[in-house]
Design a protein that fits this description.
The structure is a homodimer. Chain A is 60% helix and 7% strand. Chain A is mainly alpha-helical. In chain A, helix 1 packs across helix 3, helix 2 packs across helix 3 and helix 4 packs across helix 5. The termini of chain A are far apart. Chains A and B meet through helix 1, helix 2, helix 5 and helix 6 of A and helix 1, helix 2, helix 5 and helix 6 of B. The structure holds a DNA duplex.
Chain lengths: 144, 144
DNA sequence: CCTATTGTAATTTTAATAATAACAGCATAT
DNA sequence: ATATGCTGTTATTATTAAAATTACAATAGG
């Protein structure tokens, strides 16, 4: 497959909502910024809404963050979008007649869980506000 | 794309080499255990050899670990196989006319780097020996 | 009522990965 | 030395998850 940009796109959407609180924010307008199509934006927003990170109502183009930007972490967004899908994947298709493969993979799971936990712990330390701060610094820098 | 099992398969290969030090270990024999084809096994082994994790010679079916199992970390394997490819990917295809997208993505990079570093730091704490220990415990457990 | 938009699902296209195939070159045995 | 088996490498094809696209019922607001 192509590799996933869903987390990046979701953060983009959240920032875009934060940065445009008053305007009419249709999925089409957001899609223009992400350079994708409104359907994809609405799919991601649907997941963000189910995770209670944004609020939005059918027919009304005014999505809003449901929490402060400082209260939304990258882990919240990751879990909203990816659910339990991990960063690393076992090969679950090894030869079952050769016990080595199966048991190595099962042993690996335990360590992959640790790696996943370390990554998610770091995600939990990063908020949408941090990303927005980085964004604003960049904007300032460009104006110099 | 389908998601990558290259790291898992590479660990499998390394363990298989460790566990079968004397036998004739052709890529075909390893491929049977991974349930894949010899060409794929040789591709991964080529990367492992370039990273000096194994040694092998053309025409001679006797690959060997180039280091102690306790000296090979998951980060070594990950970097051998994936190089600089990260776990999380920016969307580098946002609308350049809308500065928001571009700058949000650039701001994100800094935080993705932190997440990648956290994940790799945990990988660096896990050795092939750890995985082998987990494997042996599992084998023992099954015999009970 | 009419228009714009959401929320959702179904289908198609794209692209990274794994599978497959092919072959020159080396090692070992006979 | 010759034959056989295997490696190392490259090229091509198939597979499959992600993104793009399409469609439409349902709601908000004028």
């Amino acid at each position: 497959m192509r590799f996933s940009t869903r987390l990046s796109d979701s953060v983009h959407i959240l920032c875009f909502i934060y940065l445009n609180p008053d305007e009419n924010l249709s999925s089409e307008r957001i899609a223009e910024s992400v350079r994708t199509n409104p359907g994809y934006v609405r799919q991601l927003m649907s997941l963000l809404r189910k995770a209670e990170l944004i609020s939005s109502t059918k027919g009304h183009a005014k999505p809003m963050l449901a929490k402060e930007a400082g209260e939304i972490t990258l882990r919240d967004v990751y879990r909203a979008i990816e659910g339990d899908k991990p960063l690393l994947h076992l090969d679950t298709h090894t030869n079952p007649e050769c016990g080595v493969g199966v048991n190595i993979q099962l042993a690996l799971q335990e360590y992959y869980d640790r790696i996943q936990a370390a990554a998610e712990a770091e995600m939990a330390r990063i908020t949408l506000q941090d990303v927005l701060d980085g964004y604003h610094e960049r904007i300032k820098g460009n104006k110099r």
